[in-house]
Design goal:
By secondary structure, the protein is an alpha/beta fold. It has one domain: 4-Layer Sandwich (Metallo-beta-lactamase, Chain A), CATH 3.60.15. The protein is built from nine helices and 14 strands. The strands form three sheets. A six-stranded mixed beta sheet has the order 1-2-3-4-5-6, with helices on one face. Strands 7-8-9-10-13-14 form a six-stranded mixed beta sheet. It is globular. The N and C termini lie far apart (40 Å). The mean pLDDT is 98. Bound molecules: zinc ion and fe (iii) ion.
Length: 250
């Protein structure tokens, strides 16, 4: 494996990620939900920190930047919107690359949750860090963009190889599963949700997930199948499922 990923829970339901390019020993953290938790994970791994890769500006993603940069000297890389709350050394957007030693992260513009949200994808290890765009059986709320923009962003992620490992930033899966079951009766979904409720009952994470698994079972990616109508564009079906989730009580 050219890329080592260490995942840890922090705040109420976030995941933090520290990653190492094994060839060079260069290290990054993806988002900074909690500076103390990130620094503790680095200490436990015995790693320094070269790069902070931010997905979007929200405080549970970029709020630890200043403290972690001060402690480690790491370079902060992210979309321009991160400058609202943090130091930002290099601005990236769709189509850019961020190198970590020999690992080449492609920057994928994924606006919708926030306007400038990006994901980071390494094609060699088939690893994607998707922030608050795609979740296990879910997707981020559309705070700043439009449903059409969010649908386009999700389609970009769905176009990654099926075997791509997807690191999402929150453990929302059990609640996403309850909603998914309310809108989709597909047997593959039922089987997956049984596994999810069992895993959460044992206190186990349900992140990471995989692109192929999400394409098969995620109600937001399946929106045209479960809420589509003849003649209606796919993003409107997506918007209908997203609106249903926003008001779902379960
Ligand atoms: Zn967010
Ligand atoms: Fe978040």
């Amino acid at each position: 494996m050219p890329l080592t990923v260490r995942q840890f829970p922090c705040l109420s339901d976030n995941y933090g990620f520290i990653v190492r390019d094994d060839a060079s020993g260069r290290t990054a953290c993806v988002d900074t939900p909690d500076a103390a938790a990130v620094l503790k994970a680095l200490a436990e791994a015995g790693w320094g920190l070269d790069l902070i890769l931010n997905t979007h500006w929200h405080p549970d993603h970029a709020g630890g930047n200043a403290e972690i940069k001060a402690a480690t000297g790491a370079t902060v890389v992210g979309p321009a919107e991160v400058a609202r709350i943090s130091p930002l050394d290099r601005t990236v957007s769709d189509g850019d690359e961020a190198m970590l030693g020999e690992t080449r992260f492609s920057v994928i513009g994924c606006g919708g949750h926030t306007l400038g949200h990006v994901a980071y994808f390494d094609a060699v290890s088939q690893t994607a860090f998707v922030g608050d765009t795609l979740f296990a059986l879910g997707c981020g709320r559309v705070f700043e963009g439009t449903a059409e923009q969010m649908w386009t962003s999700l389609q970009k992620l769905a176009a990654l190889p099926d075997d791509t490992t997807v690191y999402c930033a929150h453990e929302y899966t059990a609640s996403n599963a309850r909603f998914a079951l309310s809108v989709d009766s597909d047997p593959a979904l039922k089987a997956r949700t049984d596994d999810i409720f069992a895993a959460r009952g044992r206190g186990e994470p349900t992140v990471p997930t995989w692109i192929g698994l999400e394409k098969a079972t995620n109600p937001f990616l399946r929106a045209p199948l479960i809420a589509g109508q003849a003649g209606r564009p796919d993003f409107e079906a997506f918007a209908a499922v997203r609106a249903a989730k926003d008001s779902f009580k379960g």
